[in-house]
Amino acid sequence: MLPQGLVVDAHCDTLTKLKEENRTLGEKSESGHVDLPRLKVGGVNVQFFAVFIHPSYGEVKGIERAMEIIDTFYKQCDQYKDQMCLAACQRDIVETVQSGRVAAVLAIEGGEALGGRLYMLPVYHRLGVRCMTLTWNGRNSIADGVGEGRTRGGLTNFGVEVVREMNKLGMLIDVSHLSEAGFWDVLDISSQPVIATHSNCAALCPHPRNLTDRQIKALAQVGGVIGLTLVPDFISEKYANLERYLDHVDHIADLVGTDHIGIGTDFDGVERTIDEVSDCTMLPRVAEGLIKRGYNKNEINNILGGNFLRILSKVVG
């Protein structure tokens, strides 16, 4: 049984920043947005760490790049085992959190990591990967990303195989960055609920990376969860701040209720953040904002982490 009141961040790009900025997860840094000491201050119990494969690596070098980042992750886990632990299932999350450490969920961002080879999915699963964002903004062998929306292209035949294999393995399918046609293909094919780890509401901010009301309703209908992101460009076209971010929470709550809302900061994946939540230490301000807007304790617990924990338990086990 998962404890109540856990905080989950469904997306950060910190692993790819460690070498660039000469940082480690175990020591507080003056740069970036996430490290273990700051996660503790911010009260984050479960952190999804993305293995981001930039499209420039392509599918030829995608596997190599993924292995390099996963190796970095495991070295950090070994070095700071008193502060974090890989969580590959619900039991791991419970035991890690109860021990006072951060439960780290390993996620791939960009299907280039497969190199067009379906057998890489079970390989990554054995390495502890429990989530994959199918595309970034461009096209790969799985599907078109949002940057290719003009083509109206969705999943390829290989992409259909990938979705089915992820269902079989018990891996979370992430539709953030995916073209709208691909989104509908995934919902049609997947036998499990799917997630959008870092996307907001297109009705409030018409960015291609945000989801339309129709998409939000469909995702909720299959039991999915949307991790609302703190990226300013996805919050408001004019002035992004915490109040505008909370407007996105209200919008989804009005559409489908609070059981399908989570947090996916995209910290360390962007240069600019909103002033009120400039790194993970300031995430409690989101809870404070939800209280001021009249959400009850159960709703707040679900938004801050309970909804993602529920879907992790259902899909991953």
Task: Please characterize this protein's 3D structure.
- This protein is an alpha/beta fold.
- It has one domain: Metal-dependent hydrolases (TIM Barrel, Alpha-Beta Barrel), CATH 3.20.20.140.
- 40% of the residues lie in helices and 13% in strands.
- It contains twelve helices and nine strands.
- It has helices at residues 14-17, 36-42, 58-79, 90-98, 120-126, 157-169, 180-189, 213-221, 232-235, 242-256, 284-292, 297-315; strands spanning 8-12, 46-52, 84-86, 102-109, 129-133, 172-174, 195-196, 225-228, 261-263.
- Strands 1, 2, 3, 4, 5 and 6 form a six-stranded parallel β-sheet that branches.
- The mean pLDDT is 96.
- Proportion of residues in β-strands: 5-15%
Number of E-state strands: 9
Question: How many domains, in number, for the residues?
Answer: 1
What is the residue-averaged pLDDT? 96
Rg computed from alpha carbons, rounded to a whole number of angstroms: 18 Å
Class by helix and strand content?
A: alpha/beta
